[in-house]
Amino acid sequence: MIQLTPGAVEEVKKMMEREKRSQAGLRLAVKGGGCSGYSYSIDLDDQSKEGDKVFESEGIKVFVDGKSYFLLNGSVLDYTKGTMGSSFTFQNPNAKGSCGCGASFNV
C-alpha cells in the first residue's frame, strides 16, 4: 500500500478543485528515465484501468499499475513546501539510491 500524508492529501484535493475533477483519483506510476533510472509520475485519473491496484488513502482514491506498484509498495507520498518551491516527494523503501533532487531513483 502507499500512504499519503496530510500535506499530500491537501494538495491532491487542491489539484482536483483546480481541475474541476472532484470525483477523480490519484494515479501514481513509475516510468523509465531520469538520472537514476526511474522517475515518478503523479496525475489525476477518472477511473482505474485493468490490472491496477486500487485503494484509498485519507479519502483519496489511488490507482497504481501492477509494475509500478511493485516499485512503490510501502512508500509514503508527501507534499513539502520550502523556500526553493513546493513539490510532491516519495519516501520509497524500495529505492536503493536517488538523484540529488529526489525526482528519480534506482533499485
Commentary on this structure:
With 107 residues, the chain is α+β, with helices and mostly antiparallel strands. The protein has a single domain (3-98), classed as Hypothetical Protein Aq_1857, Chain: A, CATH 2.60.300. The chain has helices at residues 6-18, 66-72, and strands spanning 3-4, 25-32, 38-45, 53-57, 60-64, 76-82, 85-91, 97-98, 104-106. The strands form two sheets. The chain has a six-stranded mixed β-sheet with strand order 4-5-2-3-9-8. The protein has a three-stranded mixed β-sheet with strand order 1-6-7. The two termini are 18 Å apart. The model has no long low-confidence stretch (mean pLDDT 87).
Name the poorly predicted regions.
none
CATH homologous superfamily classification: HesB-like domain
| CATH fold-level topology | Hypothetical Protein Aq_1857, Chain: A
Structural class: alpha+beta
DSSP helix fraction: 10-25%
Number of helices: 2
Q: Report the average pLDDT across residues.
A: 87
Please outline the major beta sheet.
6 strands, mixed
Q: Give me the strand/helix succession.
A: EHEEEEHEEEE
In CATH, the architecture is: Sandwich
Number of strands: 9
In the CATH scheme, the class would be Mainly Beta
Spatial extent as radius of gyration: 13 Å
Head-to-tail CA distance between termini: 18 Å
Structural descriptors:
single chain; 107 residues; alpha+beta; Hypothetical Protein Aq_1857, Chain: A; 6-stranded mixed β-sheet; 3-stranded mixed β-sheet; 2 helices
SSE inventory with pairings:
Elements: E1 3-4, H1 6-18, E2 25-32, E3 38-45, E4 53-57, E5 60-64, H2 66-72, E6 76-82, E7 85-91, E8 97-98, E9 104-106
Parallel strand pairs: 1-6, 2-5
Antiparallel strand pairs: 2-3, 3-9, 4-5, 6-7, 8-9
